Amino acid sequence: MNKSRMWSPIQKIFHSFSLKQRIWLTFVVLITLGLMATGSIAYLIASKEIQRNAMQSSQDTVNQSAQIVNERLKNIGIAIRALMFSDAFKQLMKDVQANDRSSYYKSLTSLQYVFSQVKFNDSMIDSILIATPFGDFYPTSSVRNTANSFYQSEMYAHFKQLNRGFWSQGHVDPFFTGKQRVISLVTEGVGEDSFMVYEPTNVYVVVNVKEDDLRDLFMDNLTKTNKQYYFIDNKGEDVNYADRTSKDHFIQKPAFFEQLSDQMKGSFFYTNDKKDYLVNYSRLEVKDDWMIVSVQAKDDLLAKLNGIKRATTYVIIGFIILSLFITNNLTYLLLKPLYRLQRLMKRVEENDLSVRFESVYKDEVSQVGFRFNRMLDEIKQLIEDVKNRERDKRKAEIKALSAQMDPHFFYNTLNTVYCKSVLGENDDVNEMILALSQMFQLSLSGGRDLITLEDELEHVRQYLAIQQRSYENLFVCKFEVEPELLACLVPKIMIQPLVENCILHGFKDMTSGGDILISAHAEGDWLHITVEDNGHGLVPEKLLQGIVHPTTSKHGYALRNIYTRLQLYFGDQQRMEITNNDVGGARIELWIPSYEGEEDFHEHEPTG
How is this protein situated with respect to the membrane (predicted)? Predict the structure, then answer.
């Protein structure tokens, strides 16, 4: 059951392929799997061999460099022991034991030859200092920095802590001028007596080795292709200076040093930031907490395999292209009519119903094509029928909405006419009847749904003439319309409901002081119409909610009527905004396309 569920989606995908795709897929999968298997096996074998050889080569290089540095440092130690066996040094030790300060300059002079011999035998030695209780001895060619006493230095404190000689890490020489970076060997001076019985002599020998020379010594033997080399101690601190970058910070991580064994040499892979590195290290015999470390990215280590990867990839791609070419030619003649029918279907998807399938053959594919032609004829006729019904339906909805005028307006108008007639105000009666007649004439507009902005504004003026007789001294209305816009087409009875909304709702409970502003101006290809007043204002959110989600409530009915008609006329090419202006009154803004002829409107008329 589980297997059938697992294979069911794969089968559905396979069944959805065309015949040509199935043939292609079969060849491509078989060839690709065979080549990938062969290439992967070859890659793995070559990868292991190259990795093994690279690890061994890198380890040999590091071991050789460590051996060279170790031998050089040993030789320096031997040179210092030879210095201690010299007659000048032995006489110095006797003077120190006898506390004889009178022979200082004599000992200093006799030691110069010894110093010269030591420095001549090893050019890496920069300076030598022999610190004694009654004075320091050093080559006269070096300038002593008398401000720094050995007995007050960190080297002296470190010696006392270890109670034995040691090699220091790279630092600026504090005992001689020049600020030379050196690595120092600090040991206690011994005389003839102290060889037999170990006794502190309080005499110390400091040999400063040039850090640059030491670095060059171990770097000269190392390749500088894509590897990084470090001369560090067990804490990851540099024995001599090194150019560290952000990616080298893992050298000082505890997790890195946990993989360093106590053995004198070794190698391992270390992962940092999802990248693997090959690490080789070799400790120095002269100081086993010093080591030379080589770091190389595994990607660089296996860079030689890129050629194999590229060759395998090219072969796979070549065979895939060849298989596609062969299968394409084999199936093209058989599927040619079907391809032609497929192209026609794609054009139908792009709403081109004028295409027709043509073929001189009478085979099964051609029969499908002829039936496809009959189907297109029927679809085209159905679409035309739907369009006609939708157009008639939209026109009927527009006419129904346009005819929905507020009966209260007629009732109130006729009632006002009657009252004024009884009171004998015949002039007002005549004007109201004439205005009402002209309103009806403009509303009918010869059966047209779209009228010019000039006729629409005239309709509003007749409406205002009636309302000003019904609500005397209640309001005044101003028009700000660009003259060139009067010829633009607008849906009829669109502005009058907005003005009516100002009078009935905005000026409710007011007896005078009402202002209505009607403005129209162009914004690019848009006609922007605004109706605003200084009345009580409205709640835009509530009205917008009622417009978008109509209810049976009559609140905002006029605005819903306008919004619906605009959608029927222009679809998405319109906009209505309901806000309050700066004085607290209502502001209704409409944006509709600016058309000056009905042919422009019908050209962009919505189809749905």
Answer: Multi-pass membrane protein
